[in-house]
Structure formats: structure tokens, C-alpha cells
Design a protein that fits this description.
The chain is of the alpha+beta class and 1256 residues long. Helices cover 51% and strands 8% of the residues. It has an eleven-stranded mixed sheet, sandwiched between helices. The chain has a four-stranded mixed sheet with strand order 9-10-11-12. It comes from Pygocentrus nattereri. This is Erythroid differentiation regulatory factor 1. Pfam families: EDRF1_N, TPR_EDRF1. InterPro entries: EDRF1_N (IPR056582), EDRF1_TPR (IPR056583).
């Protein structure tokens, strides 16, 4: 018993059509309302799974068929015969009820309409008649001739009518090579076979039966005369055998030949173009072809398209079978059978497969004898395999289907190739040929394959559809599809598809993505497979010995790709094994190197541009250029005004998109044409690729190369602007990125002027590809708009100026109306760059002013003029010889100050307090340079008094430094910048105090006022000396603090000596001097590289004690003062030890001139000033002698009796004094220092020797 199971997840057949309104079913079929599109049919013990989903239907809902009365004569035509009928669809206008002859490109028409299913989801696309013919191969002796094409995992099957093809060949001369091959290897006595009159008779009554079935109430017309019947038969025969094959593209068909071809079947060079869809706007691909220009050969003419799943095989099939209502089910198929002829197995399989594909559950069979209706019989679909005389196994049919699919997928591996599946009439051998390869091997010069263009267009459409999904896992497949598409096409005939395919290939590389995306992109391309072939994913070492693709007849098999030796093999389960997972034969290596990717993109862009240019009929007025001749990138010197004018023109392109260009362009290209749209996208893509190359070169510090690439990027953009009526926001945004990258490169070139020769060599290098792209650009534009901005100049000032103007242009773009909502992120970057370049220009002019000042002084050599002001701290003793400030210097100051102020405004706009603080710090440095230029002069050409102008500028510098610290807020905001500003502020106060002290303006101010100002400035400088924080500047701070205390002590010492009258003020000065001397000594003792400063401070302190003693009258008090002075003198041991060590290191270095490590390990081996040491020794010896002498005198003249200890002390003083007097004055310095150390150590008790230093 047969069982019919219905699926519940699909709609009714009657509701499938989307083009017509729903019609009520016949009451008799109401019980079958639950019929669904998905079915599972079980027959006996063998289950065959079948599921059909109607993807498209042009037919109305099935209407009840007319039950013809018995004895109805089908030879008489009904009144509505051959009239158009919505119920019968296209079957109504032909002599066939269900066409048994497929059109040559029917599968392509379906593939174009259901492009989403092609490549991955569907295994086979074909006419239902072709599917049936394949599955009947083991049962039929008829010939089979089909063309097979592969797209991804999908196979397209079309009937290849050899008879019609060879008839065409005899008329046009095309396909002669295939005809000769066929006659040589297959059928040596090929003749065209005509079908019998009985064949046409059966088709005629079938057509009349179908018209009767939809119009049973019409009265039959009289039977036509014999003459009319003959004409009808001849017409049928002519329609059947008439040439409907598309002409090959190089053949020259005569007018007579063309007249024999129906108008709707004539195919020209663009017969496939109507089906090429444009990619969505996001993909930036122009509309390629007019969708309305559908050619007959590629039109989807089927009444319905069905997605049929037969077991695990997914097929997209086209069917024209009329479907009626009636019976227990809402859908039945009508069949007409001669009662005298039994149903054979081929007819049974035919009926069964038709009903499965169309999801029709029941068959209505009308029997006739000589055209006279006899009876009707209802047969369920699942009962068809068990009909008498036509019994067949559904499981075997399933095995046949799986074996044929596996055989084809295993051997039809190359996309773009046309394969021919052929079985001769009466033969058991099935052969597969690669017609593309045979065509290439043919001796004829022009061997054409009519499938070439449809296949290429389909490959393009599938790739376009995959691109829309933006799934990078498919990028390798897309690349394979497009490369195969390009291989198949002739650039002269199909430049549009080729240009578009090359553009899509360039779009596969996302140049602006992150590193993770790039890695994913590269991986997907590596997995994309070889360019044109696929193979099934089978184990290489597992071979099925029973599966043979070769024949024992080598003569017949030498050209065949594969052979099935016997059709009986197809009935064996899993005879040909194949999984449906496709793997690439070889992986496509994609480098992760960004430059290599960009070069690949540019190669595709160039090919696309060449294809577009080849299609433009009107030649340009430009002279023909030789691509092998480099276009010079020559720098022409020009002034700043010319640059400003050119940069100002950059924004002219930013106008809103207008109505569009109306006149032909420079190359003759018409606005709005596909060439115009394609060039816009290719120019933009090339510009982006060059931009990425420039960015990569900048990161590699190859600034000459980077400037060349950014020049090419801007030239591509210039060409884009030349053919565009206006720029879209995204294009403007990219343009601003190009401009500020150009600014970056020019800035780097200005800062690295020493490497200009290497940069110039990089800049002038050009690849052949770059030259050819430039020639393509010059067809549309002179590409001169950005020359000034991208030239490699020799003047750093010019380069800084160009960089500044590029940033300004980018800023103006980003703040324009078009980009006010899109460019906020980039605007912050540009403002930061603007602030930076203005700081650079301010520093440049500041350095120029300082260099001019230095040259007039005749001080430093020219090569150090730029570094001196930035890196070196101003000396506390600045002897600047100046009378007046020249106009050139003042102009440089104004320029520098102006740029610094503009830079601060830029950083304020983005709330960048750190960089704003740095610019304030630079302004402070500029004020110090101004102060140095305003020093007063004396008539002796020596440094005069500290001038009011100097004080003014130093105070301004202090103000800017304090603003910088206020801007930072705290040290935690940015430690390095805070420390730098803090140091500069301390330095400024120290310099101000030093100059005020050394060159006191006594002509304008009182001594006391100057002393107060000096003390105030020194204490402020001391306040900013950070002695606690460990840093690289800590020793400098310690040295400065020690120097400040020393200077203050010296000043108070001087005041104490010169003060007369006010005793309280003198005591105050004395105590302050003592305080600062003690602090200075303590700080100098912590420094290992300032022995001279320590010695000088100690000697001054001893002199201060001696002066104090001179004013004392009591011997006891004097003795106490002298003893204290001697204690201070003993502290000079620390300074002499450091000096002695320095001298020893110098001697060792002179002895071991080749021992470099000694000199390196000595931190101040070259820092000891022996001349200064000699001067200090000249002060030390008399002072030491005087102290010893006075101590001996006071001790011996004292009235008080001395103790034994005191007597020993006096004796020691005498010994030391004696040795000091007898010392050799001309002895080497190191010996004299050694003697001093020995004498000082004699004066120190053994227990106190080590405590002398720290005790102070």
C-alpha cells in the first residue's frame, strides 16, 4: 500500500502564484485543502525524499479541468486552439503541451533570476526536461547531448542540439572544428534525422486535448483539409528544425541568413547584457546594463521555477507543465495516451518526475483511440512506479541521480569551461568532453563558443551578489569568479564587464581596515582557491577501483575528460562517490605586506582604466603618449604667494553636487555614461591605494617615497575632480586626509634636511605601472592642481609653509558645511597638526633670530646656530655685544610670536593643555632672546648696565612660564612638561638676578633697591629648584641652588664690608652671609663635579672670618674667630681630594692613551679647569699662612698660662707653617695639591678626620 505524507511548513500550491489573485478551488477538491508544497513519498520499503518549493510562478491558481465526453474527436481543433492562455502559459502558444526541447541558455536565464542560490546553495540548474533525460539514461537508447558549466558548486545543464549546431555550422562556417571532431570520433556518417509525421500528429492532438480541457464547452470546428494539415505539419517541422542557436560573435551572418532567424531569436553582441545587474550603491559600482534588454536566448521563459530537493540533491528546475485542479487534490496533471499502446518505463519515469518536481499529487490519464476519447483514469503520483508495464524502482532513480551528479562534479572542475556530456543513440557509453580545451587546440584562428558570454556574465553576477553580502570568507571565491570572467571575455567587445570586474577585484582589498581585518581578508583570499578550478573533497589515497572513467577504446577516449563505460553503472548505489564540499586545488598566496596589496589593487585599477579607455570612441586631442616614457616629477622653485594661490584653489572642488556635467570631457567621454561612472570609482580607488602607500612609507621614514605617493594620490583626486560635477562628503573627507598626510610628509622633510639626497632619489623613482596610470589620468586632466603642495623643495622654510597650508586646507574642508557632521574625529587631528606646524614655524623663526644675533656677535659657528638656542641653557654671564635691534630681527620675532599664538588657539580648540603649555614655554624662550638683544652698551664696547628693556622681556618670559604652569595645573598632569617649564622658570629668574647683580643699574636705582630685587629674584629661582625629586635634572638643581646661596652670601659679605653706621643692619648682613655660605658649602659637598666652586666658597668664608676678626679687639675673641676660620680651612680637604683625583685621572689618561675605558669612566676627566685651580691656590696659600701665623702669635702672646695640649697645638701650627713656607712654588700642581692635603690632615685630629665634611 502506498502512503502519501504531507509537509506542514509550506503554502498550498494554489497560493503559490504571486502574480495573480487567488481563485476558489473546485468543491470536489476541498477535502484536500491541507495539501502542501513539501512532500515525502514512500513506495514499498524504499523511501525516496522529495521536496518542491515554487520560487516563481507566472500561472494562475489551478482551475478545474474540463472532463471531455466520450467519443470526443481530438483531431478536430477547438475554437480557442493556439490562442494565448494564462492557464496553459507558454505551452499554449506552441505545438507542445510540455516542451520537450530546451532553449540553449535556459539554465542561465534561471540563474540570473535566482542569483542568490548560485554558487553555494544549489547543485544543479536546468530545464526539467534535461533532468528527466539524464535520469532516464540507463533505460533509454536515445542520444544525450548536454552542455555543462560550473559556477562554484553549482552545475548549469543545457541541451546542446548537435544537429542544429552543425546545420548552423554548414551555413556560417562556425563550429567546423567540432563537426569534424564529431564525425572523426563519434559518427563518421553524420546525417540530419527528420522526425516522422506520426510524431507531429501526436503533438498536435495533445495540444488540442489541452485546449479542450480548459474550454470544454466550445464547439469543435470542422476538420481542416488535407492541404491545411500538410501545411500545419510542415510549419511544425520548420519550427522544430529552424535555426534558433545564437550566432557566434565573430561570424558575419548575411542578410539572407538573418531573415531566416525569427526576430525574437536573433542574438547580437550584447544579447546577455540585459541580465547583468548593477551592484548596490554602497558598492559604488555603476549600473552596467539596461535591465529591459532581455534577449530570447537568456530569458527565463518557464511558467514556474521550482527549488526541488531530491534526496540530498538541490536543484533549481524550470517547468512549463500545465497544472489543473480537480479530483481529491487541488492540483493534477493531464496526460493523453493511445489506448492501443501500453505505458512503458520511460513514460512512467517521465510522468513521475514531472509530478515530483511540480509537487502534483495526482495524475489524470485520458485514453484515446485514433484521436477519439475513450476514458479517464486517476493515478496517484506515488502509484506511478507500480503501473503495469512501467514498473521501476524509485531507489534506483535516486542512485542514478546521485551518481550522475557525482560524476559531473568530479570532472567538470574548471569555471568558465564548457563541458559536453554526450551519449550516442543506442550506445551504453557516456563521455564528457571539455569543449573549451578542444576549441583552444583547434587549428582554426577564430573558434567561437556561444556559451562564453553567458558564462562570463553569470560569473560576474554571482561575484557581484557575493560582494553585496560583504562576507570576507567568500572573497577568495569572488576573486576566482572574476578572474575566470575576465579570461572568457574579449576586451574590445566587452570593456564594460571587464572594467567592472577589475574594479571589484580591487575592492576585495580593504586598504583602510585594522590589522585584524587585514589578516582575515588575507586568509579568505588564500582560501579562495586557484583561478579557475575546483575539485571534490575526497581522500587522495582512497580510490574506488570499481569506478572507472576510461574506456578500452583509446581512439575514442583520447579527447574525453571522463567516460562512463556502461550506463548500467549508474544504477549501482554510490558507484561514483563525491561529497559536495569544494576545496581549492591550490591556495592563492596573499602577502600581508600592505605595499604589495596596494600594488595589486593598482594593477587591477590600471587594467580597468585601460578597458574603459579602449571603449571611448572619440580620441583625445592630446598627443599619443608612450607609456614607457616617464612623466617627470620636477620641482620648480616658486614663491610663497604662488603656493598660497594654489592651496586656495583646493577648496574650489568642494562645491555641492550640481546638475552634472553636460559637455564631453577631455577624452571625449560623455557625462553619465558607464565609462564616466567607472572612471570616477577607479580614480578614487587608485587615490586611496596611493594614500595607503604614502602612509606606509611615512611610517618607514621613507619621506621621499611618501611624497611621491601622496603626489600620485592627489593627482588621481585631481583627475576625479576634473570629471566630477561635485564631491560627495565621503570623497571630501578622504581628500582632507590626503592633504594633512601631505602636510605631515612636508614637515618631516623640513626636519630631516640632511637626508635630502636620498629623499630626492626616492621621489624621482617611478614604476612602469605608475607611469601608465598617470597617462590614463592625463586623458582627463592635466593633474597640475597639487604640484606646488607635493614638490620636493630645498628650502626648509618653504616646506614648513607648504605643510602649514596643507593643514589649513584640510581644516577648511572639515569645517565646511558638507563635512560639519562627518569630520569631527579628523578635525581634532588636523587642529593638533595645525598647532604643531605653527609651533614648528615659530621655533624656526625664533632660531633664525637667534642665529642672526649670534652671527653679529661673531660667537658660535654657523652650524650650531639652530641648536644653541633650543638645547643650551643661557649662561649666567651673557656678554651680548649689541647696540640696537635691526628690523630683520624684529620681523622674525613678530613672525615667531604670531605662529606661537595661532598654535595656542589650535590647541585650546581641542583642550590640549599640555601642548598649549609647551607653546607658552617657547614664547617665554622667545622673550628671553628678545631680552638678550636689548642689552646696553658702553663706549668701550663692553657690556653696560642691565637695561629696562631687558628687565621688561625677562619679566614677560616669567609671565609666560607661569601661564604654562597654570595651564598644566600640577606635575601629575604631565611630568616631563612640568619639569621642563619649572626648569625654564627657575633659569629665567636666575639669569635675571645674575645680570642684575653683575651689571647693576646703579645709574637708575639705589644699591639697596638692587639688592632687594636680586634677593627676590634669587629666592624665586631657588623656590623652583626641585631638590627632592630624583630626576636627571636633580644635580643641576643642586648646583644652581648652591650657586644661588654662594651669590647671596657674597652679596651680603660685600654689604657687610661696605656698610657703615647702622650696626643692626651690619649684624643682619653678617648672619645672612654666614647662613648662605653654610648652605652653599653643604650643597657643593654633595656634588662630586664642582670642586673649584666648593674651594672658592670656603676661601670666601675664610676671608669673611678674617674680616670679622679685624674688627675685634679682644685677643680671646680673635683667637676663637681664627680657630673657627682654620676649621673652615680644614674643610677644603674635600675640594682638594676631588681636584687631586681629577689630576691623577688626567695623568693616567696621558700615560694610557690607548685605554679608552679609563677616559670614559672618569666622569669629569676633561672638566677640570687647571687655570682656575691655580688662581684659587694663589688665594689659598697666603690665607692659610696668615691664619697659622696669627694663631701662633695670639697663642704665644697670651697672658694666660697655656696647657700642654695647647702647647702641642701651637707646635703643630709652627710645623705646618714651616713646611708651607718651604714648599717649592714651581712644583707640579698635583704635588702641591698633595702637600696641601697632607698639611690639612696634620691639623685634623685622627678621630675627627672623617667628620670634617659632614660637620658643616
Amino acid at each position: 500500500a502506498a502512503l502519501l505524507k504531507m509537509s506542514s511548513d509550506h503554502g498550498k500550491v494554489s497560493s503559490v502564484s504571486t502574480d495573480h489573485t487567488h481563485e476558489e478551488l473546485d468543491p470536489d477538491s476541498a477535502a484536500s485543502e491541507d495539501t502542501k508544497q513539501g512532500t515525502v513519498i514512500c513506495l514499498s520499503n524504499n523511501e525516496v525524499k522529495s521536496r518542491a518549493v515554487v520560487k516563481y510562478s507566472a500561472a494562475p491558481p489551478p482551475a478545474t479541468y474540463a472532463l471531455l465526453q466520450e467519443k470526443t474527436d481530438l483531431k478536430l481543433p477547438p475554437a480557442n486552439w493556439l490562442r494565448e492562455s494564462a492557464q496553459l502559459g507558454s505551452a499554449g502558444t506552441t505545438m507542445l503541451g510540455s516542451s520537450s526541447k530546451s532553449k540553449p541558455f535556459s539554465s542561465f536565464g534561471m540563474a540570473y533570476d535566482f542569483i542568490d542560490s548560485i554558487g553555494n546553495d544549489v547543485d544543479v540548474v536546468s530545464d526539467s526536461e534535461n533532468i528527466k533525460k539524464l535520469l532516464k539514461i540507463p533505460y533509454s537508447k536515445s542520444h544525450v547531448s548536454m552542455a555543462v558549466h560550473r559556477v562554484g558548486r553549482t552545475l548549469l545543464l543545457d541541451e546542446l542540439d548537435i544537429q542544429e549546431l552543425f546545420m548552423r555550422s554548414s551555413q556560417t562556417g562556425d563550429w567546423t572544428w567540432l563537426k569534424e571532431f564529431y564525425q572523426r570520433l563519434i559518427d563518421q556518417k553524420w546525417q540530419r534525422k527528420k522526425k516522422s509525421k506520426e510524431h507531429w500528429y501526436e503533438k498536435a492532438i495533445l495540444s488540442k486535448f489541452l485546449y479542450y480541457s480548459i474550454n470544454g464547452n466550445d464547439v469543435a470546428e470542422p476538420v481542416p483539409s488535407d492541404t491545411d494539415a500538410c501545411a500545419e505539419a510542415e510549419g511544425c517541422e520548420s519550427a522544430e528544425y529552424g535555426p534558433s542557436w545564437p550566432a557566434t560573435f565573430n561570424s558575419s551572418t548575411t542578410e539572407a541568413d538573418q531573415s531566416t532567424i525569427p526576430k525574437e531569436e536573433r542574438v547580437g553582441n550584447t544579447y546577455a547584457l540585459g541580465h547583468v545587474t548593477s551592484v548596490l550603491k554602497e558598492q559604488n559600482l555603476p549600473t552596467l546594463f539596461n535591465e529591459g534588454e532581455n534577449s530570447q536566448g537568456l530569458k527565463n521563459d518557464f511558467v514556474r521555477n521550482i527549488l526541488w530537493t531530491f534526496e540530498d540533491i538541490h536543484m533549481l528546475v524550470g517547468s512549463n507543465m500545465p497544472i489543473f485542479g480537480g479530483g481529491r487534490y487541488p492540483a493534477v496533471s493531464l496526460r493523453l495516451r493511445d489506448n492501443n499502446k501500453p505505458i512503458n518505463i520511460l513514460t512512467g519515469i517521465d510522468y513521475w518526475l514531472d509530478n515530483l518536481m511540480c509537487n502534483v499529487p495526482e495524475l489524470v490519464m485520458c485514453f484515446h483511440v485514433n484521436g477519439i476519447v475513450q476514458k479517464y483514469e486517476m493515478i496517484k503520483t506515488e502509484d506511478i512506479p507500480d503501473l503495469e508495464n512501467s514498473t521501476f524502482s524509485t531507489r534506483v532513480v535516486k542512485d542514478i541521480a546521485q551518481n550522475i551528479l557525482s560524476f559531473l562534479k568530479s570532472n567538470c572542475t574548471k569555471e568558465g569551461h564548457t563541458y559536453w556530456l554526450f551519449k550516442a543513440s543506442g550506445s551504453d557509453i557516456v563521455k564528457l568532453y571539455d569543449l573549451t580545451t578542444l576549441c583552444e587546440e583547434a587549428p582554426e584562428e577564430k573558434c567561437q563558443n556561444p556559451f562564453t558570454l553567458p558564462v562570463a556574465v553569470l560569473l560576474y553576477k554571482v561575484a557581484s551578489n557575493m560582494m553585496l553580502k560583504k562576507n570576507r570568507k567568500h572573497y577568495g571565491t569572488i576573486r576566482t569568479l572574476l578572474l575566470n570572467c575576465i579570461k572568457l571575455l574579449d576586451e574590445e567587445k566587452h570593456p564594460q564587464i571587464i572594467a567592472s570586474a577589475h574594479y571589484m577585484l580591487s575592492e576585495l582589498f580593504h586598504l583602510d581596515d585594522s590589522s585584524e581585518d587585514e589578516e582575515g581578508n588575507g586568509e579568505s583570499l588564500r582560501n579562495g582557491g586557484s583561478e579557475d578550478s575546483y575539485s571534490e573533497d575526497e581522500e587522495d589515497d582512497e580510490e574506488d577501483e570499481s569506478c572507472s572513467y576510461t574506456s578500452s577504446e583509446p581512439l575514442q577516449d583520447c579527447k574525453a575528460v571522463a567516460v562512463i563505460k556502461s550506463v548500467g553503472e549508474l544504477s549501482v548505489p554510490e558507484k561514483y562517490k563525491s561529497t559536495h564540499k569544494i576545496r581549492p586545488n591550490c591556495s592563492f598566496p596573499v602577502s600581508q605586506d600592505k605595499e604589495e596589496k596596494c600594488r595589486l589593487v593598482l594593477s587591477y585599477v590600471l587594467k580597468g582604466l585601460k578597458a574603459v579607455d579602449s571603449s571611448i570612441k572619440k580620441e583625445s586631442d592630446l598627443p599619443a603618449a608612450d607609456p614607457n616614457t616617464p612623466i617627470p616629477l620636477k620641482y620648480e622653485e616658486s614663491g610663497a604667494r604662488a603656493v598660497e594661490k594654489e592651496i586656495a584653489l583646493l577648496l574650489d572642488r568642494a562645491a555641492p553636487c550640481g546638475e552634472g556635467l553636460k559637455l564631453p570631457m577631455r577624452s571625449g567621454m560623455l557625462p553619465g555614461s558607464w565609462q564616466h561612472q567607472m572612471k570616477l570609482q577607479l580614480f578614487l580607488k587608485a587615490s586611496k591605494a596611493y594614500y595607503v602607500l604614502a602612509e606606509a612609507a611615512t611610517n618607514l621614514l621613507k619621506y621621499g617615497r611618501a611624497l611621491r605617493y601622496i603626489k600620485l594620490a592627489l593627482q588621481c583626486h585631481d583627475a576625479y575632480c576634473a570629471i566630477s560635477s561635485g564631491l560627495y562628503p565621503r570623497v571630501l573627507l578622504f581628500h582632507s586626509q590626503c592633504l594633512y598626510l601631505c602636510g605631515d610628509v612636508q614637515l618631516m622633510l623640513a626636519q630631516n634636511a640632511s637626508n635630502r639626497a636620498a629623499y630626492l632619489e626616492e621621489y624621482n623613482y617611478q614604476t612602469k605601472e605608475d607611469q601608465e596610470i598617470l597617462h590614463c589620468l592625463h586623458r582627463e586632466s592635466s593633474c597640475q592642481a597639487f604640484n606646488m603642495a607635493t614638490d620636493l623643495a630645498t628650502d626648509p622654510e618653504y616646506q614648513l609653509f607648504v605643510s602649514s597650508k596643507c593643514y589649513e586646507a584640510a581644516h577648511d574642508l572639515l569645517t565646511s558645511e558638507a563635512l560639519k557632521d562627518l569630520g569631527q574625529e579628523q578635525l581634532a587631528q588636523v587642529l593638533k597638526r595645525l598647532g604643531n606646524i605653527r609651533n614648528e614655524m615659530g621655533v624656526f623663526y625664533m632660531n633664525q633670530a637667534a642665529a642672526l644675533q649670534t652671527e653679529k656677535e661673531g660667537g658660535e659657528p654657523a652650524e650650531n646656530k639652530y641648536i644653541a638656542i633650543i638645547l643650551s641653557l643661557p649662561s649666567p654671564f651673557c656678554h651680548v655685544v649689541r647696540r640696537t635691534v635691526c628690523a630683520a630681527e624684529q620681523e622674525l620675532w613678530k613672525k615667531s610670536f604670531s605662529y606661537f599664538e595661532k598654535g595656542m588657539q589650535n590647541f585650546e580648540a581641542i583642550s590640549d593643555s599640555v601642548n598649549k603649555a609647551l607653546l607658552l614655554c617657547n614664547i617665554g624662550r622667545l622673550m628671553r632672546i628678545c631680552a638678550q638683544a636689548h642689552c646696553a652698551m658702553t663706549t668701550e664696547e663692553s657690556r653696560g648696565e642691565f637695561s629696562p628693556e631687558e628687565a621688561l622681556y625677562y619679566n614677560k618670559a616669567v609671565d609666560y612660564y607661569q601661564r604654562a604652569m597654570k595651564c598644566l595645573g600640577s606635575r601629575e598632569s604631565h611630568t616631563a612638561v612640568w619639569d621642563s617649564v619649572n626648569w625654564e622658570l627657575s633659569t629665567t629668574y636666575f639669569t635675571l638676578a645674575t645680570l642684575l647683580q653683575d651689571y647693576a643699574p646703579l645709574s637708575r636705582k639705589a644699591q639697596e633697591q638692587i639688592e632687594r630685587e636680586v634677593t627676590e629674584a634669587m629666592m624665586k629661582s631657588l623656590r623652583y629648584c626641585d631638590l627632592q625629586t630624583e630626576s636627571a635634572r636633580q644635580p643641576l638643581y643642586q648646583y644652581r641652588a648652591a650657586t644661588i646661596h654662594h651669590r647671596l652670601a657674597s652679596m651680603y659679605h660685600s654689604c657687610y664690608r661696605n656698610q657703615v653706621g647702622d650696626e643692626s643692619l651690619r649684624k643682619q648682613h653678617r648672619s645672612l652671609a654666614e647662613l648662605h655660605y653654610s648652605k652653599a658649602v653643604r650643597l657643593f659637598l654633595n656634588l662630586s663635579d664642582a670642586p673649584c666652586e666648593l674651594l672658592r666658597t670656603l676661601l670666601e668664608r675664610v676671608a669673611f672670618a678674617e674680616f670679622t676678626m679685624a674688627g675685634q679687639s679682644s685677643s680671646a675673641v680673635k683667637l676663637k674667630t681664627l680657630t673657627g676660620a682654620l676649621e673652615i680651612m680644614r674643610e677644603t680637604c674635600s675640594a682638594f681630594r676631588l681636584i687631586h683625583k681629577e689630576l691623577q685621572d688626567q695623568q693616567q689618561k696621558e700615560v694610557n692613551t690607548f685605554t679608552k675605558s679609563e677616559a670614559f669612566d672618569s666622569p669629569t676627566s676633561s672638566g677640570l679647569n687647571t687655570e682656575e685651580v691655580m688662581k684659587l691656590i694663589g688665594v689659598f696659600e697666603p690665607s692659610f699662612s696668615f691664619l697659622l701665623l696669627q694663631l701662633v702669635k695670639l697663642s704665644t702672646t697670651s697672658k694666660r698660662k697655656s696647657s700642654s695640649k695647647e702647647e702641642e697645638q701651637v707646635k703643630l701650627y709652627k710645623q705646618v707653617y714651616s713646611r708651607l713656607l718651604r714648599a717649592e712654588k714651581n712644583a707640579p700642581l698635583i704635588q702641591r695639591i698633595g702637600l696641601y692635603l697632607e698639611l690639612l690632615e696634620q691639623l685634623s685630629p685622627p678621630a675627627e678626620t672623617d667628620e670634617t665634611g659632614p660637620s658643616v
